[in-house]
Amino acid sequence: MGRLIIVSNRVPAPRERNQPAGGLAVGLKDALRQGDALWFGWSGRQVPEMSGDPTPAIDRVGNVTYATIDLTTAQHTGFYQNFSNGILWPLFHYRVGLMNYSRLDWEMYLSVNAMFARTLRPLLRPDDTIWIHDYHLFPLGQALRDLGVKCRIGFFLHIPFPPWSLVRALPGAELLLEDMQAYDLVGVQTPEDAENLNHALRMNNMAERAQAFPIGIDPVEFRTQAETSMKGTEVSRLRDSLRGAALVLGVDRLDYSKGLPERFKGYEALLSRYPEHRGRVTFLQVAPISRGNVEEYRQLRCQLDELTGRINGAYSEFDWTPIRYITRPISRDVLAGFYRMADVALITPLRDGMNLVAKEYIAAQDPADPGVLILSHFAGAAPELDEAVLVNPYDTDEIADALHQALTMQRPERQTRWTALEKEVCRTTAVSWANDFLRALDGAPVCVSS
Ligand code: ADP
Ligand code: G6P
C-alpha cells in the first residue's frame, strides 16, 4: 500500500508537548495514528531571505515523517498573513467587510503554492495518495499536476464555504474554483458547505467535486486525558479558587470569528438581568493570541481588554471577579480537566468550520454529572450537536437566557442531553473522518490522466 502524504500550512511540531491551538493540526494528528505517512508544510519559522527554494527539514516520529520548510518574511507576510488570513479567512467566515484585498498578495499566494509544489515533488512516489488541507493551499493541487504528478489528490477545507454570491466579492474568485478541478475529491465540513461549493461550481460551468465529511476528535483519548487532568494541581487550584461558584468556560483562539465580544456581553446581560447569579458564577475565557500581527486581531484584543475591564469593574465584589480572561496558551492536557470541571461550556462562534472545542467538551464530561453545552447555530458542529442549548450568537439576551437555563438545569435533563451528544461525538471521530474521506478519494473518478 502506498503512503499517505498530508500537506498543510500549519504542521504540529512533532516533539513538542505544547502545541499551538487550532483544529486542523489537532484533528489530523488524531487521525494519523495508522499507516505510513508523510506530513509536509510550513515549519512555523520565518527567515529574512533565502536564495532559491528551501530544503525540507526531515524528522520521523512513530509512523509519520515530518518534512517542513521555512518561509521568508516576505512570503510569510504576503501568503500567510495578508492573503490567507487577511483575505480568505474573513471572506470564508462571511465577513466580506473585513477583507483587505490586494493583487500583490494574491501573486505571493500563488508563488508560495508553486514553491510548495516544487519542494514536495522530489519527495513523492507514484503510488502515494496526497491529501491537501485548507484555504492556504487551494492552488497546490494544480501546481503539482503542472509538475506531472498523477497520484490521487484530495483536498479538505476546514473552514466554511459561503454562498457564491458572497465568495465572488473576491476579485478573480473563479480561479479558486478552477483550482478545485485538479482534485479528485474536495471535502468540506457540512452539507451546507458542500451545497454552497457545488452550486458555485455549477454556476461557473465546472464539475461538482464537494462532499461533506464532518471532522471529529478522539473521544476516548480525550476523556482519559480529562480524567487524568482532574488529579493534577491546575484543576485543584482552579476548583479551590472558585469557592463553590459555578464555572462557565470558553476556549477559543483569539479570533473575530469566535464571537467573543458578543459572548462577553451575553454574560454581562446574565449578570444584569438575572442578579441571582452574581457572586455564584465565574466565567473563565481562555483565548490564546492567534495571528497577532493581523490588524483585525489586534483590534479584537483591545476590544476584549476593554470589555473585560468594564464588566469586571461594574460587577466585581472585593471577593469575587465575574470574568477571568487568559490570552496565554494553556496545554490541552490541562484544558481537558477544565472542560470536565466546567458546569457550562459557552461556545458561540459567529461562524466556524466545525469547532472541535464543542466536541472535546462533550467527551470530557463525567457521565454521572455532566455539564451543559451552549453552542452557536453557526458552528459547523451544530447540526450534529443539536441536543446542545443552541443560540444565535448575535443575540446577547438569548445568550443570557441560555446561560440561566444551563446554570439551573437539573441533572436528569443534563444527562439526557449529554447522552445524545456523546453518541454523536463517538459516531464521527478523527479516525473515521480520515478513513471515510480516504475511502471516498480512493473510489472517486480520476479527474486528471495526463
Ligand atoms: P479553530 O480550528 O478555529 O482554532 P477548533 O475549536 O476547531 O477551532 O479547534 C481548536 C483546537 O485548539 C481544539 O482542539 C482545542 O483544544 C485547541 N486549543 C484551543 N485553545 C487552546 C489552548 N489555549 N491551548 C491549547 N490548545 C488549545
Ligand atoms: C483554523 C484553520 C487552520 C489553522 C488554525 C490555526 O483551524 O482552519 O488551518 O491552522 O485555525 O491558525 P494558524 O493561523 O495559527 O495556523
UniProtKB/TrEMBL annotation:
Pfam families associated with the record: Glyco_transf_20
InterPro entries reported in the protein's UniProt record: Glyco_trans_20
| Cross-referenced SUPFAM superfamilies | UDP-Glycosyltransferase/glycogen phosphorylase (SSF53756)
Q: Which domain of life is it from?
A: Bacteria
**Gene3D superfamilies for this protein:** Glycogen Phosphorylase B
* Family under the similarity heading: Belongs to the glycosyltransferase 20 family.
Task: Name the chain's protein.
Answer: Trehalose-6-phosphate synthase
This protein's species is Novacetimonas pomaceti
Lineage of source species:
Bacteria, Pseudomonadati, Pseudomonadota, Alphaproteobacteria, Acetobacterales
